[in-house]
Design goal:
mainly alpha
Length: about 450
């Protein structure tokens, strides 16, 4: 169901003309085949677009719609710019587009691409300098003598928000391993701004605290995804402290969601449950069913890991009920990754933890089929999970095929989590290594595994 504040997409509705939503969906699928795309378009999707629930289509749908209506832009079709939807558009103007990348796997080229992509626009600020706009990163962080005299205003706060936005965009496309060290400097600069003095306007001060907390979570996530669990724990704790000082339940809920995820990955399963429950308490006042759904999934995963099937299934049912209420304008900006593919992937994690690999494989296969290719890191992760579950379910050839598909994306994505998942696939497939398809995958994995 659309949010009561969703704005109907009348331009898109006019393009449908006299065709029913089902007929129009069929036309979209035909157009997709014409250009070699695959989209699972149905009448429900068309209804969501027209109701304003989908403010910007994913990249596959974008290519199909522009093919169907040559000469029109996304704005002509009634959509918002992708960066405005993905970023913190409700508070600041949409950012300049991130430069397109043609990833070749070359480390020096990648570093240059990431450096350019991190560069902010607008006035030179403390955070902007730390992102590479000139000067040194160390000089960007004010020392004790400077702190009392530095004036913190709109430009500095906008730069913090821009740093959060760009980290999220780049993480979706490339994974965390190549970003973590670069993101440390803007984080130091953001907290230096907090130490430098409170902005005179209350709204600016609130944005600065929120931006610093979200930046700490984003950098913590980069540490988490690249296997630096102690660093991630520290960053999440810092974000939680910032949220509580500022009385910001949205940042608090976000910090608890990530802390629960980290605790599960670290083997602290009861902590994962408690952190998710704390996040649910913080999120209760925010009005976002999707946020409640995600936190419930975090709790369900914790119950699954401790072997509490009843607790897992009860919490999983609650998560699905929250999810089915649909998106709303109260959903946090950072949750743009959380759609049906991630829901299916989280279900798969729960069933896998409970020992039902076949059921887990069905859910994660659906996640791979639904995932927008823009989220390359998540797609690679889902395919690695699919490979592991297929191997454990006794389908070695299919597992090897899914493993190859995950490896295909590693030229674009750097994520230690994905390598860890693929290592689990290898362990599950070793007993079947005499099968030709399995042997080919194992050889390819050995040649590409950075830890080998």
């Amino acid at each position: 169901m659309a949010s009561s504040r969703s704005v109907p997409n009348l331009a898109f509705r006019r393009l449908r003309a006299q065709r029913s939503p089902g007929e129009f969906a069929a036309a979209v699928r035909r157009a997709a085949r014409e250009i070699g795309e695959q989209v699972a378009c149905d009448a429900r999707y068309i209804g969501r677009v027209e109701a304003g629930e989908i403010r910007c289509p994913n990249y596959a749908y974008e290519r199909v719609f522009l093919h169907m209506f040559p000469g029109l832009t996304l704005r002509d079709l009634g959509f918002l710019p992708r960066e405005q939807v993905r970023g913190r558009a409700a508070r600041t103007p949409a950012p300049a587009p991130v430069p397109a990348t043609n990833h070749t796997g070359d480390t020096s080229e990648e570093s240059d691409v990431l450096r350019r992509a991190f560069m902010t626009t607008g006035p030179a600020t403390v955070v902007a300098v730390s992102l590479g706009l000139g000067g040194s990163a160390e000089a960007a962080v004010p020392g004790p003598r400077e702190a009392g005299s530095r004036r913190v205003g709109e430009a500095e706060v906008s730069a913090v928000e821009e740093a959060v936005r760009r980290i999220r965009l780049l993480d979706d496309r490339h994974g965390a391993d190549g970003l973590y060290r670069q993101a440390a400097q803007p984080l130091r600069a953001a907290y230096a701004l907090l130490d430098a003095g409170t902005p005179t306007r209350r709204s600016t001060a609130e944005r600065l605290h929120t931006g610093a907390g979200e930046l700490s979570i984003s950098v913590g996530w980069l540490a988490h995804d690249s296997g630096r669990f102690d660093d991630a724990r520290s960053h999440y704790a810092e974000a939680l402290a910032t949220a509580r000082v500022a009385n910001d339940p949205a940042v608090e809920a976000h910090a608890f969601a990530n802390t629960s995820f980290l605790a599960r990955d670290s083997g602290r399963y009861r902590e994962a449950v408690r952190a998710a429950q704390a996040g649910l308490r913080a999120a209760a006042q925010l009005g976002s069913s999707r946020l409640l759904a995600l936190l419930s999934l975090r709790e369900a995963a914790g119950w699954a890991k401790v072997g509490d099937r009843a607790g897992c299934e009860r919490t999983l049912a609650r998560a699905i009920a929250y999810f089915d209420r649909g998106p709303s304008d109260a959903d946090p900006e950072w949750m743009s990754f959380f759609g049906e593919p991630e829901l299916e992937a989280q279900k798969a994690l729960c069933h896998a933890a409970l020992g039902d690999a076949r059921r887990a494989a069905r859910h994660v296969y659906r996640a791979t089929a639904l995932q927008d290719p823009h989220f390359a890191r998540n797609l690679a992760l889902y395919r690695a999970e699919l490979a592991t579950n297929l191997a454990r379910a006794g389908a070695p050839d299919e597992a090897a095929t899914a493993g190859h598909q995950a490896l295909d994306l590693l030229d674009q994505v750097q994520s230690s989590r994905i390598h860890t998942r693929l290592a689990a696939t290898v362990r599950a497939l070793l007993p079947q290594r005499r099968l030709p398809e399995v042997a080919t995958f194992l050889e390819r994995h050995a040649a590409t595994d950075p830890r080998a």
